[in-house]
Amino acid sequence: MSSSLTPRRTVLLGLIGLAGCGFAPIYGADTGLRGRVAFETDESVAGFRLREELEKRLGRSAAPEYVLKTTVRSSQRAAAITSEGDTSRFNIVGAAKWSLIVLDDGNQIDGGEVEAFTSYSATGSTNATQATRDDAEARVAVILADLIVSRVLIRAAELN
To answer: Keywords on this record (predicted)?
Structure first.
């Protein structure tokens, strides 16, 4: 009985400690940047997907104060080859360079590059393989957006 209470007490004390230190969730409704950022991405499918994911996380802005500029590149590599020499699995590798810029003065607040990869199977029909490739490319955009937004929100929290 006492062994089941110990972890519960530890969790409760930890939560009380976090509340006392001013801890606030970074992905809350009021992140400080929500609705204040415009996005500039590549004129490509990968750029469009990344922009869409960034907008989901930071919202669209009618009167932006910042611009988040990104450049996306991706490549495909064979990940698994059968004994007959056919490729049965591919990796999609994506990278995005980003910079967060203040619109008023053009100063760059922060920037960097993030990388991610995911895989898809090429063992089905042509249509099935294309569908899994499209899905993999969409997953890479989600991962890249998560990485960028995490870094941007951490930097924004440091500025406040």
So the answer is: Lipoprotein
